[in-house]
Predict the structure.
Amino acid sequence: MSELQARAIAHANIALAKYWGKADEKLNLPAVPSVSITLAPLATHTHVRFDPKLESDRFLLGGKAAQPEETARVTKLLDRVRALAGLRLRAKVTSSNDFPTASGLASSASGFAALAAAARAAAGLPFDRSAISALARASSVSAARSAVAGFGELPLAGKAGDRLAARMIAPPDHWPLRIVVAVTTEGRKPVGSTGGMQHTARTSPYYASWVAAAPRLCAQIRAGILARDLPAVGTAMEHSTLAMHACAMAAAPAVVYFRPATLAALETVRTLREGKTCVPVWATADAGPHIKALCHVRDVKRVEAALRKTAGVLRTIVCEPGAGVELIP
Ligand code: DP6
């Protein structure tokens, strides 16, 4: 690609051990460690072109001019890249998601990972996965994990501070797991994750307990992934999910992402697992109403069929461990 422009693709990711809460709001550092799977095929494509003719950054999302607050978040990332590269030019950013935006399907994660990679490359900075991850993390913590392939983790910052980046635990072919997304709405979520977690941290009486409990769940999930122990991973994942949501629901006023269809899909997963069928499947949900079911590839048809029949589930998307962020020629 010619100078001052670059294109990148990044996939969404789903946290198995949830991030919810910030240790440092200014540096955007997480209060808890997290573990995730990067999800093919849910992808964001982003093109960045620095252009001497532009007076301000422009951001097109899905073919339309983005909201001013979305453009402001993009400009913040671009400002970091401009500072690193000694560049003053404004940029045009064109981005498209192949899945619903801002509805709890982690579009900000793939979006900021793709933007970080494309912006660095367009500014002439080398492809450095860790630097891309840290740059994406400064905009949105979960985006750090979309930089890495397969099974990834984002530890606590410790000495890394603002260089905190995700790292791969195991590559995509480590374990043939599937995530079946039960889509329950195509609309935008009412409370974004940033606002939701900040409000939770300030007002939920359970927040301190959540922060104290999360590292142990995260360690169990990490060890379970390495040992390919699905019941261990699934049990701790469901626990992490429900603990996060319980903590948010106890905020004042409550932050409730669940809808009737969310609970119905959760019930479907638990019945599949605990009923006569005994399918090894566990559920998770992010800051949105969708349920994502984790299972082995051999059980995916049964899980998909059961979720499709669930009241309020509009459609399902089957995902698998995917690639980390990449530049596209
Ligand atoms: C529930 O990464 O979107 O999806 O850092 O404020 O941008 P910011 O938050 P964000 O939060 C994601 C929360 C979550 C859990 C997770 O992905 O770990």
